[in-house]
Amino acid sequence: MREVFEVRDQDGAGRVGELTVPRADATVRTPALLPVVNPNLPTVDPSRLPEFGAQALITNSYIIHGNEGLRERALDEGLHEMLGFDGPIMTDSGSFQLAEYGEIDVDTPEILRFQRDVGADVGTPVDIPTPPDADRETAARELRETTDRLAVAEETDTGEMLVTAPVQGSTHPDLRTEAARDAYATDLDVFPVGAVVPLLNDYRYDDVVEAVAAAKRGLGADAPVHLFGAGHPMTFALAAAAGCDLFDSAAYALYARDGRYLTVRGTKHLDDLTEFPCACPVCTSHAPDDLRAADEDERTRLLAEHNLNASFAEIRRVREAIVEGRLFDLVEARARGHPRLLDGYRALLDHADWLEASDPASKDTFFYLSAESARRPEVARHRDRLARLVVPDELCLDATGTRDDAWPVVPPFGPVPPALRETYPVNAETPRRVDGDAQVAAARGVAALAAAHPDAALTLVHDGWPARALAALPDAVTVEEQDS
Amino acid sequence: MREVFEVRDQDGAGRVGELTVPRADATVRTPALLPVVNPNLPTVDPSRLPEFGAQALITNSYIIHGNEGLRERALDEGLHEMLGFDGPIMTDSGSFQLAEYGEIDVDTPEILRFQRDVGADVGTPVDIPTPPDADRETAARELRETTDRLAVAEETDTGEMLVTAPVQGSTHPDLRTEAARDAYATDLDVFPVGAVVPLLNDYRYDDVVEAVAAAKRGLGADAPVHLFGAGHPMTFALAAAAGCDLFDSAAYALYARDGRYLTVRGTKHLDDLTEFPCACPVCTSHAPDDLRAADEDERTRLLAEHNLNASFAEIRRVREAIVEGRLFDLVEARARGHPRLLDGYRALLDHADWLEASDPASKDTFFYLSAESARRPEVARHRDRLARLVVPDELCLDATGTRDDAWPVVPPFGPVPPALRETYPVNAETPRRVDGDAQVAAARGVAALAAAHPDAALTLVHDGWPARALAALPDAVTVEEQDS
Known about the structure:
Oligomer: homodimer
Structural class of chain A: alpha/beta
Number of strands of chain A: 18
Number of domains of chain A: 2
Radius of gyration of chain A: 25 Å
């Protein structure tokens, strides 16, 4: 067991946990968002970040190391005093600059020792962030280099500082899984899924989910996972549902400088807003015209404050949804922020088997909220369960809701023994207007029951199921249609 | 034209408008939420309501009329001074009490004159709020009584006060439409869709949409429509998309007294919250534990303030979405708050023909966000447009995205002439992971093109469309499958 991370609540692959940061003598409740503080240009004073809900922050040790004034101050005062922030400080290493500019002038032992010396609470080695779509050979070669550097990091004296073990592998899921296994085998502490920023910038949320899911398959449940560079609140619920615990955001500040306004349903530009579609203190005490009339520093600061408010409210919403067992419901809503987020959710549901393995057996009421709900892990689990049930020799399965002597067929789950009707998840709230995907899923449940009980005589009574649902039924099931 | 209401922006049946209230010398930007102020027990001081975004409020003239102390004060000081609120004040008449308790002791002329005398800016006659599921005969008989009372209201001297003309009809759509036509034929000003509270309480959002759509079909575009008793922010986007302009809410206060916390995704109870999933000033400066520890008045007031913040932020979000032409996207997200809201959205899409009639021809990018998006009015409109296009004698329709010499087939729209490819709505953002409903809708587009051009030789090339999409194609279309 990794002692620095404890999972408290679980929902699908999402979890609320507690990351212990020994050097800061603090714990961080996850999923957590770490605002990125640019040591040259803090948009919001770091001492104020806790007001918004920040428990920890992240800054770039490479920038500090490369600037004589900052370096001397950091070594002299320590990062906490320099930034005016008491909580845990994570430092990045320059890997991002390596990816952007092709080279940097520090190596892993040097930057880790520097991070330790300036008082960082979580440090980062210099890994190689292989970009998406790299050919397999390049990705594998660079991954070997990253793995070597993690070994160097393990050997470096970092004191009480936690050290991250970035997981690379570009868009090759098997390499990500292998990288994750190797990283997890070290004694390093926190596991960033690296080099996803280009995917996030291109709205390739399905590929982000694939990268995270592949990494998660190589990590133990006690591994805290950081999605490096994910700072837009529209992505938090989906990324948390894929099993990410930590996010970092420069977006709140970078977007503010460009007049951009973050919401959980996407980005808006101040120039286009008539009213502020938000309840935060900035938006309830200002109108867009006020900000447009303000001087640039004031406008940037207020937009950054809104962006932080919107981001931390979403982080709290994600944590609360996990505690309540309603994370999928939140993802359903967020997937409607952009068609590519829907792609991300659809990609996540491709991993229903894996999600099911960590999903609690009982949660708050299952809500059927879209055709995608038919693919939730709870539906697959019910289907598996059907195979283990004892059934009578002759059994009527009733999809019409009118027969007392039958097992009800509940879309999207399928047949339900009457004794289980009021248990999770089949006591679901479902729409009165049922869709074909729910009926197809229910038909698959019937098929699963039939396959596990070849000797039972099963009759399905339905009231107008579509052809594709009927096509999912095996020949062994007798089908009767009843007028609705 | 009704001069008191002007539509400024339109999106589907939703609109941003301006309601002029002559007696208050004020205008109200719609959709607007009018907090209900209980004259006996104001939870939040009415003078503070503008802080939250309230432009107008509603109070119950029947309660004031029935209480000697309040009645004398109201007649003496006027409602505005008595409540400490400068903006427009709408008054209800006791119809709700009539529905709840079976009788009241005022009639329409008396209560309208009283409302006028206490300075109400918008008054309400005593209509008969027939509950849902009433038999047709009862609903029709009570409707005749309501219609008679509207005639009485027209004859009553109400001065500059606007007067509402409630639209009843229970759950009989044809009666609602008839009631709306009759109401619209009067010279009354504002049109509440009445007696929907029992539907809202039972989460029968599809029936609410049916009632509103039926009423709207009988009203002109210049009729401001009030959804009486709709005060939960989870319903605003859907109701606005159905064409409602005004909402009123006692929920903010009633729920607060019961420890309930409103969100756009449903109601939570303070006892169950670990953190506040909200960015409002109450939620960013308090934790749930703080409120649980507060005394009851303080707790109720703070919860009511949160409820107002959450409600008015959603109202601004709805208005902003209409201005941007993105109201359907917001409804897509909100429909994922509860399966019954999805029913409401599905019911609304049953009226795509009617929505299409008022939907602007060009808006911001169409987002495909769920199988429901395939039923949006823009999809139906594109299909109609296909029938009017000139096509070559031989035409290849390409659903694979690989052929330059063909018309692309864009799910959910169908075939698109290359010259229109970059125009609204077919320049849509769609998921990379296409679903069957989008393909079926596209196949219907192909069928529409074929039906309108029986002499053209059409070939469809697809890469793995499901059987149900292929089944939607007419025999006249040659189908080729290409490996993807």
